[in-house]
Description:
It is a single chain. The protein is α/β, with parallel strands linked by helices. It has one domain (about 5-120): Hypothetical Protein Ychn, Chain: A, CATH 3.40.1260.10. The protein has helices spanning about 15-30, 65-75, 80-85, 105-110; strands spanning about 5-10, 35-40, 75-80, 100, 115-120. A 5-stranded parallel beta sheet has the order 4-3-2-1-5. Helix 1 packs parallel to helix 2 (about 65-75).
Amino acid sequence: MASKFCVSLTHSKDNTDKATVGFVVANAAVGSGKETMVFLSVEGVRLAQRGFADGIHEEGFAPLRELMDNFGKAGGTIYVCSPCFKKRKLDENNMVAGASIVGGAKLVEFLSDGSPCVSY
């Protein structure tokens, strides 16, 4: 059984349901003892900006900001796609705690160890 788990998240305010569910699943994985990584790409990179997730709250779920905070506190890792982040001209000095800007090679490295990955 794999000891790692990846959630690839390509949405933020363009699809708050997918953004929320992605972090719900990530919290379930890290809570079950898996080394868990969320890879933010495309519009998902906007979630790496402090304050961006504030106010996103899908009915039936905890607020997205709370889900993200809990994920970090539980030891989860957030990797942010460098080209996607730069394309959107986002601020590297305004990142949420625990987020790191990385190239695609970091995702490949994580997945090459046999990690399952779900995408939202």
